[in-house]
Amino acid sequence: MLHKVLLIGAGSICPAHIQAFTALEGRAVVVGVVARHLASARRAIAAAGLDAVAYDDYKTAIRASGCDVVSVLTPPDTHCEITVYALEQGCHVLLEKPMAPSLAECDAMLDAARRTGRLLQVVAQSRCLTPVWRTKQLLASGLPGRLLYTQVNSFWYRGRSYYDLAWRGRWATEGGGCTFVHAVHHIDLLAWMAGMPRQVTAMIGNVAHTNSEEEDLSMAMLRYDDGSFAQLAANLVCHGQKQALTFACERANLEIPHAFAADTPLENGFPRQNTEFLRELEAAWQAIPPLGYEGHTGLADNLLRAADEGAPLISDGQAGRNTLELIMAIYKSAAENAPVTPPIAREDDFYTREGVQRRMPHFYQKTGFLAQFASNEIILAGDNMK
Fold first, then answer.
1. Which one, of 127, 110, 75, lies nearest residue 96 by Cα?
2. Where's the GFO/IDH/MocA-like oxidoreductase domain (predicted)?
3. Who is most buried in 261, 271, 273, 337, counting CB within 10 A?
4. DSSP-derived secondary structure letter, 195
């Protein structure tokens, strides 16, 4: 089946979605791009050499384009409204992360997907990288032994001007700072590989971005039912952006980007490298088949195969909600200066967008209200994860 794809949003991530669907030649065609300003949609179409239509209203575009797949690439505060409408119009949806600024909006989208029987896939492109996929499968195999501790370093660098865009740096429109927008990639991998924790203890701050209401640094400790722990550090102030996950298991460490460490104890308890087991691990890792498509293309391919063949989604709406639940537990713990036990109840302030905005600290007054940057070159998340 040839799927007709509509992209809603013409910002910096738009080219990645265009490339993802155009790579699936014969299975998908991009028929339109929507942006608030028609000129932005037309630029995106021209830059990619598409035979597509530019729109400035997503409802008109969904009805007029004949699309059956929609990519939602707009700021997080608009995700729920657009996604629910697209699902109700009979479209499958590929939704950029973060899924939404609130768990209430996540649940509204999940409900719409259930009611309509349409598919909802949340972008988590790092899941579709062969090295990450292999590490996930190896961890699940039990070969490294029981997972004891996970360390997540979601280190990014953003200059002050990053928050000059009008919608960034405001709880009401962006939905959160580095934990919500940037660490979402690594929190997703943490939830996917280690599961959901029993308890979260966290703190947040803003140490360098005085034109943003939101946090640019967070730290969290997670406790699991099986007695294991995880530690998350996220910020926008680390030069070099060295992002990494370490899964410390009974017999070895598995790391992303790809690396292994394995020791055996001497009589006195000190370590000696276990080279034989390292070779066994590497052989098992290499034996896991590579993915056919990676990154955004992998997610697009998976969505179409799910629609056509019933394949399971790699990153469905529930996965996106789990990631947000962890983020909200971090925010709630930091705001209340106390441990939090997920899940977040529906009556909790941290279930709704309004409650989060009311309870979270506003570190600085938002300044800078650019509609768009003249140049907007970006590095896709996942580029540092191989």
1. 75
2. 134-254
3. 261
4. -
Q: What is the DSSP string of 54-112?
A: EES-HHHHHHHH--SEEEE-S-GGGHHHHHHHHHHTT-EEEEPSS--SSHHHHHHHHHH
> Could you give the 3-state DSSP secondary structure of residue 302?
helix
In the chain, the amino acid numbered 299 is L
Q: For residue 160, name the pLDDT band (cuts at 50, 70, 90).
A: very high
The DSSP secondary structure of 280-297, one letter per residue, reads: HHHHHHHHSPPPSS-HHH
Q: Which two tokens stand for residue 210?
A: 């005085």
**Nearest by Cα to 65 from 30, 37, 116, 26:** 30
Q: Which two tokens stand for residue 332?
A: 């709630």
Yes or no: say if 65 and 31 are a contact pair by the CB < 8 Å rule.
yes
d(CA 69, CA 26): 15
Report which of 86, 85, 81 is spatially closest to residue 69, judged by C-alpha positions.
Answer: 86
Quick one: how far is CA 72 from the chain centroid?
14
Write down the pTM of the prediction.
Answer: 0.95
Q: Which amino acid is at 31?
A: V
What string of DSSP letters covers 114-175?
HHHT--EEE--GGGGSHHHHHHHHHHHHTTT-SEEEEEEEEE-B--GGGGGBTTTT-TTTT-
- Residue in the structure block whose two tokens are 């699940």: 140
CB 264 within 8 A of CB 101: no
